[in-house]
Amino acid sequence: MTTPNSTKQLRAGASSYADDARDATEHALESTRQFATQAFEKAGEKVRDLRYGAKDLASKGVSTVSDATAAAQKQLGQYAQATSRYVTEQPVKSALIAAAIGAAVAALVLALRRSNRDD
Predict the structure, then answer these.
(1) Are 94 and 86 in contact (CB under 8 A)?
(2) Per-residue pLDDT for 13 more than 90?
(3) How many structural domains comprise the chain?
């Protein structure tokens, strides 16, 4: 038989275990909150780092394209000057070369048209 004292002791022990379980649960919840907060802050830092990295990469890409465009324009300008100088120095030869290229392009177009008709 259980005595009133042993029942009180059992209840006190159960209450103590319940308090310990509640304290452990509260501690676990607080640890989880702290972990989640830290993870969120780290994720935010990574997103900021990625955003700044993407901006830097885009900026470098724009700079590279701009440099390539400037180099191409400079090269085309040099070709135009050389062509202009050649035409000025050799007008007859330039006209003959232009006529030959025109005839070659016309022959190529005609050959392609014929091959398309045959198909």
Answers:
(1) yes
(2) no
(3) 1
The reported pLDDT for the residue numbered 77 is 93
Token representation of residue 18: 């319940």
Q: Please name the residue that has the structure tokens 């919840």.
A: 29
In a domain, 96, yes or no: no
The whole-angstrom separation of Cα 103 and Cα 59 is: 47
Q: How far is CA 10 from CA 14, 16, 18, 23, in A?
A: 6, 10, 12, 20
Query: In terms of pTM, does the model score above 0.70?
Result: no
Establish if 107 belongs to a structural domain. Answer: no
* pLDDT for the residue 25: 87
Flag whether 111 is in a domain. Answer: no
Cα–Cα dist 98/90, whole Å: 12
Q: CA nearest 25: which of 37, 36, 17?
A: 17
pLDDT at residue 39 in the model: 87
- Would residue 118 count as lying in a domain? no
- Cα separation, 97 vs 119, in Å, equals 33
